[in-house]
Amino acid sequence: MPVTIYDIAEGADVSIATVSRAFNGHPRVSETTRERVFAVARALGYEPHASAQSLARQNTQLISAVVPIMTSAFFMEVLRGIQDRLDESHYDLVVYASRTLDSIGGQLSRAVQRGRADGMLLISTPITDARVRQILAARQPVVLVDAYHDDIDSVTVDNRRGGAVATRHLLARGHERIGLLLPVEGSGPSDQRRAGYEDALREAGIEVDEDLILHAMWDHVHHGYTRYAGYQGMRELMGRFEGRDDGPTAVFAAADVLAYGALRAGREAGYRAPRDIDVIGFDDIEPSAYAGLSTVRQPMYEMGKMATELLMRRLGNPASPAQHTVFAPDLVVRESSGGSAEKLV
Amino acid sequence: MPVTIYDIAEGADVSIATVSRAFNGHPRVSETTRERVFAVARALGYEPHASAQSLARQNTQLISAVVPIMTSAFFMEVLRGIQDRLDESHYDLVVYASRTLDSIGGQLSRAVQRGRADGMLLISTPITDARVRQILAARQPVVLVDAYHDDIDSVTVDNRRGGAVATRHLLARGHERIGLLLPVEGSGPSDQRRAGYEDALREAGIEVDEDLILHAMWDHVHHGYTRYAGYQGMRELMGRFEGRDDGPTAVFAAADVLAYGALRAGREAGYRAPRDIDVIGFDDIEPSAYAGLSTVRQPMYEMGKMATELLMRRLGNPASPAQHTVFAPDLVVRESSGGSAEKLV
DNA sequence: GTGAAAGCGCTAACAG
DNA sequence: CTGTTAGCGCTTTCAC
């Protein structure tokens, strides 16, 4: 039978209140009783019951993270950051990983259940009005990562600037016909990346050509954030310029996974990057280093850490106005756009 | 103020017991009152309080997973399997990711706290006697993944056979001097992989040469499971045969990350795989496909799923004898040992 | 400094 | 079919 404060109260000949105080470091417990309590507790192998504490204290010491699992490589890095910050706290992490972007609503509902967690981290979760209501109704502190809403704390990378950085790199390499591969329409971050792409082109005095821009129409459940979507997207893009001489000489894929698929489609068509076509992605997930993919890096670890930091603060101060942290993206040049391959592996 | 069963009992003009019964699908509640209860609950936006339920029911509907975060790529795949199985249940997942293999004890302690979770998944966690005691004392169902102990359910891959498979592949490619790169000594899985390596050599009538075998002495906190350890290990190995002509013509790295480092060290020394040296790893984590690394694949997704399945069963039947599931490893030939590179990306 | 007692919100006998 | 009541294990006033 598990041992409770009653057992140790009896053993130490004090009341359960004193045991509780002793364990919670309450100042007004005499040194001698405190020691006696601890001695008995140790002898009996006592451990406070988490659920009972949660109920009495009205908090769980749990924070939850909701994440679409197809962003796994991205999430792992963010998770490292979360974990590092959490290690300094007394919070544990419960993970709600949804298989598709649409089932994420269900995971969210579980995560916001009363008494489940004290706060919530939403990673790469598209924020619809319905979800905002759900979140607000839960009266739980929330921090968004890689997503944005005016009224909710968020940590993002400057996607627009990132899009521009990627595009400028390609422009600097002499390209003027630059394809843009996007996930399905309506994703906040990728809309921004597109805006950056257009910014850079206009800067360079180049007109935006819709023929060069393509939204994935595949893998809708993953909102087009898959290798397959990139593969099909690239084929489609190449198909548009079949037999013409004004096809793209470079491609900016708005996510690394899209770039992987694009590289493959290009390869199948006989194009090698960067010999025949330059390719750059966005994210810099782990495999990209091995694939030699040029990309725009999001500081995922830092984003996770910062998001957790913000959440910890908000836990202590729920009323303060929403805070938005924006990280700067970094250009990472690898062989897919002419960089040296020597840094690989 | 959050709404409780008392509020909805009052609103529906029944007792709290009836509300509780209605929500728990108890058969003996009349259809009419049930509907009335639900109506009021919906109107008031009632949601049961998780902690209160946990305390009263003496279970949390939470299962925990303890994992060393440096096995992240491995873990992500396992996590997918866990999540898929969990989606069919009413359990949520709390993740204890430790930064080093040594701090895993602390995470374990948090995970086993009374009232925290109903069961536990230990991923790639070395099982010492002290930990076994800790686990047993917690009286929590536990399933090990990628780790083994007689008295605890486990899901593993046949590491010995995997080691033999990798080695035989190299032997079949004509190699007779095969280097073996291992993490620090004493890791269960890698000891088995080494045993398989020796099995294969003996089968082929080749004597085991200790000079060809090397334990990482770097990155002790990660028990040598890092790229850096592989890098240094490979340099050390090459150093041993400096100026001799009996150096290894192939290397079996007991983990993919070690292989990455080894490839790099080889490259720096002017060796390219597979032109000058064959390299094969173990695990088949995601980047390996991009790196073109031949490897022995562990079915990580299936292992996660199976482990969760076993845990669910044990939750219902705590007393049954420990069950050990062993998966067969798969050889995956890629360009680092002569396979076609066309499948990359 | 310590104890008594009233919750925290829900479940589960036990009655009826 | 439904209500009463006693917990689940711990925290926290409020007294002394």
UniProtKB/TrEMBL annotation, chains A, B:
<protein>
    <submittedName>
        <fullName>LacI family transcriptional regulator</fullName>
    </submittedName>
</protein>
<keyword id="KW-0804">Transcription</keyword>
<dbReference type="InterPro" id="IPR010982">
    <property type="entry name" value="Lambda_DNA-bd_dom_sf"/>
</dbReference>
<dbReference type="Pfam" id="PF13377">
    <property type="entry name" value="Peripla_BP_3"/>
</dbReference>
<dbReference type="Pfam" id="PF00356">
    <property type="entry name" value="LacI"/>
</dbReference>
<keyword id="KW-0238">DNA-binding</keyword>
<dbReference type="GO" id="GO:0003700">
    <property type="term" value="F:DNA-binding transcription factor activity"/>
</dbReference>
<keyword id="KW-0805">Transcription regulation</keyword>
<dbReference type="InterPro" id="IPR028082">
    <property type="entry name" value="Peripla_BP_I"/>
</dbReference>
<dbReference type="GO" id="GO:0000976">
    <property type="term" value="F:transcription cis-regulatory region binding"/>
</dbReference>
<feature type="domain" description="HTH lacI-type">
    <location>
        <begin position="3"/>
        <end position="57"/>
    </location>
</feature>
<dbReference type="InterPro" id="IPR000843">
    <property type="entry name" value="HTH_LacI"/>
</dbReference>
<dbReference type="InterPro" id="IPR046335">
    <property type="entry name" value="LacI/GalR-like_sensor"/>
</dbReference>
